[in-house]
Each structure stands twice: as C-alpha cells, then as structure tokens.
Amino acid sequence: MYKIISEGLTQIYVPVSGAFGSRVDGGDRKPPVFYNPHMRLNRGLMVLFMRALGGGVFGDVLAGSGAKGLRVAVEAGCSVSLNDANSDAVDLIRRNVGLNGLEGGGAVVTNLDGNCFMLENTGRFDFIDIDPFGSPVPFIDAALLASKKKGFLGVTATDTAALCGVYPGTCFRRYLARPLRGALCHEVGLRILAGYVVRMGAKYDLGVVPVLSHYTRHYMRLYLRVSRGVNSANRSLQDMGFLYYCSKCSVYRYLREEFPSKTLCRCGGRLRAAGPLWLGSLHDHRILSDMLSMAEAGDEKKLLATLLDELSQPFFYDVHRVASELGVSSPKIDIVLERLRNQGFAASRTHFTPVGVKTDAPLEDVKKTLV
To answer: What's the helix, strand, coil split of the chain in %, to 5?
Structure first.
C-alpha cells in the first residue's frame, strides 16, 4: 500500500509503514521499495545545488522511489534519468513520474545495475548522484569513468560506523584509510571519504575537488567537481595527507604528505595517525552563497549558513573536552569565539558538533579563553 506525500513542490507515492505484512518474528515486513523521510534535507540541498548550477542533466543511479530525481526535475527544471536495479522500485518511479506530469521525456526511467547504467551513459550527465544504503565504494569507479568533462558527482555514505572508527578494519578494507575515534571522528570520516574519491579519480587522470560537504544525522554527503587531465589529478593529490592526534593532551596537527611520518607528541604521548584523507577545503563558497540566497527558512538554510561561516581549515577543538581536561566549566561557544577573535585569531563554529570551534589558534591559546 502506498500513500501520496509532498516534499517541496513534488508529490511522491511512498510505501506505508506496516502495510506489507509481518515477518516470522512478528515485526513489520520491509516495503519492497525504500524511502527515507530523514533524507529530506539531502534531497532539498540537491535541488538547491542544481538550481545554483543553472540546471543540467541529472543521473539518479540508485533512485529508489525516485524522490530525489523527481524533486530535481520539478523544482530545478532539470532533465533527469532515474535508475534502479529493483523492478519494484522502477514500477513505483514510473507511477511517480506520472503523478508529477513528467511523461514524454522529462524523466527517463531505466531498470539497470547502477554501474551499467553509468557506463552506458558515459559523458551524458552534468551531475551523477550515488546515494546507496551503506558504502558508495562499489559505484565510485564507474561514476568517475562516466563523468562528464567538468561534471559533478554526488556521493552519500551511510556506513558511518566504519568511517568514524568503530570498525577500523572495515574502513581500511573499503576506503584504504585509517579512521579515528573520538571528537574529530565525523570530520575525519568525511575527509577520508573525500580522499578516497580523489585517489580513485587520480588513477584515471581526473582531478576531484569537494564543493559542498556535510555530516548530518546518520550519513556523510559530498558534492564534487571532476576535471580531466594529469595536471588536475596532481593538483588534487597535493591536498592529501594525514592527521595526527594526541589523546593525552588533545593536540592535533595535519601534514600534506604521501605517507605517515609522526609518532610522538611533544607532551610524550603517542600520536594517533588518521588517513590518508583530504586536507583541502570542503566547500566552494560561491556555490554555497548561491544556494543560500535561494533557500527558504528551514533546515537547508540553517545548514548552509553554518557551512558558509565555517572556516575552511581542517578540524576543530571540542571546547567541552578541553574544558574538562582543564577542570573548568566551559563558557558559551560565542564567548570563546569572541575571545579568540579579540586576540587576532580566526574562529568559527562548525557543523560537525555544537561544541566545536574551528580556529587557527594553537591549543594553548584556546585553553586561555576557557579560564
């Protein structure tokens, strides 16, 4: 059983929870087609991104119910191709295409393996979107090979337990990188994901640069610009490196290098290395500004405003953790930011945590603002 809901200006048939019978253990049987209401922000940002680009041809590789691609067609005026390997999903997508009056070429629907879909449409899409349940790794190579000259990729990862260091072995197998548990885990995970796409692009002589990136709820999301040529690939690789973090004194440093090189902190503690990972900017501020100017009040506007204000340098200090180590109560974040700026340092909030501060100040100067 399906019901009609509205997202933005788009109407979508979605499965009704509990309407597909029960499992042997008494729980509800999963619907044959997946729709996640918690990804509404993700879909809203996708619409704003395509509007900021001025439109284009959009390829939805793992479309599910078709919600994201349909919103891009209806609300950003793009030509879209909606693909899914699940025949039940394809049937639902076609119903949703008709529901939104997109028959006759506004939306093309196919029932193919995701990698086959991309490779059969090499060079066609201005934007290729990969939004799987779990890791995007199985689709990255085909997406890069199929990318248009000066095209864009959207990559979502929901295997955050691996990327954030809960399962470091899984992270190494999938992303060929070492994660880091602790306060910095979400930014480290996002930068590992970006770094993986950058490295995979380099082997095909492709330069890959993030233009919008965020961690939200249970997933990590990247929007990446792809450029062809050896020089582009080499420039992207110059922003790869490693993070070194001391769990004893909370000091961190990052270095752009091919192999990890540091083991000991000045305090005598052992440095934990994470990477290889992307150390360049996670955002293109021009694109962010254009998206923010079009966003209506709500979650999209709030997140974009935070990202636009966020310093581009990697990583941050968890103010509550530093205050705890000092044995003092943490001041409000705005007070910490004001004190740092009054000392001549750059400082901003970060979307990764409400108690984080990005700054170019050394840790000792951050500590002085807390006492």
So the answer is: 40, 25, 35
- Ramachandran assignment for 281, one of left (phi > 0), alpha (psi -120 to 50 degrees), beta (any other): beta
Residue 109 and residue 89: Cα distance in Å, rounded? 10
Comparing CA positions, the residue from 275, 276, 277, 252 lying closest to residue 265 is: 252
Cα separation, 203 vs 184, in Å, equals 29
What domains does the chain contain, in order, with CATH numbers?
Answer: 2-285 (3.40.50.150), 316-371 (3.30.56.70)
CA dist 220 and 186 (Å) reads 8
Q: Are 156 and 213 in contact (CB under 8 A)?
A: no
Which DSSP symbol is given to 39?
A: G
Q: What is the mean pLDDT of the chain?
A: 94
Span 88-118, pLDDT tens digits:
999 999 999 999 999 887 899 999 999 999 9
- What's the order of all strands across the beta sheet hosting 206-216? 107-110, 79-83, 57-60, 127-130, 152-157, 219-228, 206-216
Which tokens belong to 45?
Answer: 């940002």
Give 203: exposed, middle or buried? Use CB within 10 Å, 0-12, 13-18, 19+.
Answer: exposed
- Is the backbone peptide bond immediately before 37 cis, with ω within 30 degrees of 0? no
Query: Is a pLDDT exceeding 80 seen at residue 29?
Result: no
Helix (H, G, I), strand (E, B) or coil at 179: coil
Q: What is the pLDDT of residues 190-231, one digit of tens each?
A: 999 999 999 999 999 999 999 999 999 999 999 999 999 999
- Beta-carbon-side half-sphere exposure of residue 164 (alpha carbons within 13 Å): 17
This model's pTM is above 0.90: yes
